[in-house]
Design brief:
Layout lengths: L1 E7 L21 H18 E7 L15 E4 L2 E4 L11 H9 L6 E4 H4 L10 E4 L2 E5 L6 H10 L5 E5 L14 E3 L4 E5 L2 H14 L4 E5 L8 E2 L4 E5 L3 H13 L4 E5 L2 H4 L10 E3 L1
Parallel strand pairs: 1-2, 4-5, 7-8, 10-11, 13-14
Antiparallel strand pairs: 1-15, 3-4, 6-7, 9-10, 12-13
The structure holds glycine (GLY).
Glycine binds next to loops.
Amino acid sequence: MISYAICRDLPQSFSNCVTAVDLSQSAIDITLARQQHDDYVKVLKEHVENVIQVSADEDHPDCCFVEDTCVVVKDTAVVNQLGHVSRQKEIGPNAEALKQVPTLKTIVYMKDMDEEATLDGGDCMLVGDHLYVGLSARTNEQGAKVLEKAFSSSCKVVTITALKDSPTLHLKCLVTQVNEDTLVACSNPAGKELIQEIKQKSGIDYSVIFVPDSVPANILALGSDFVVIQKNFPESERILVEELTEKRGIQLKALDMSELIKADGALTCCSVLIP
Ligand code: GLY
């Protein structure tokens, strides 16, 4: 079971979030967004031993997307310098939350290690002892280097360039991990290119479950036998049920996250998991 999860409440200002979605065509329903986020937190509380829930910050509409604010590997956490300037002051209360986790021995601030470094946690995927860091509009090479230094004794940082100049927001918009051997990825050309680079650079032949839509490529594994997936993507859901539940015996819970998707948010974005 996962020992700790950090999440953060959704502010009333959420509809002012940073997003590539045209909200003039499809406005965020804030009441529904809150309900969807509450449902997510409820699932966290059912499957994680300790959930630390940080209060919302009205000055930071994207603050519920805590994943971007820090990266944790074993007993070390790096508090990031986020890639979008409007989000950089989200980190304070989340860093305080990290201090409540007894297994964390070292907490470092990216900005103190390199002022030019930027990185969003959504670009980082830890699979076994490999930490894949996707360069993107939010995450630069200096950011990846800070992680390499901070985690030098605990994992191998592998920098991924496939999405560097693409419109994809984060690495984990196209690929996430089920466990140490298995990934879920979007079957579009960008997803396939990403998987090819991950396999080639790591030398690991992961088993990959491809789904046709990008949103459900972001799954949230809460332990070895329980995975949260996105509702409303029937073909991707059918594949995930077949591959995860029927073939691997993993229990699935599908959540409707329609309003968070409008904010360019996915399942992993709303928590930081600490085994
Ligand atoms: N709305 C999430 C982000 O752009 O970081």
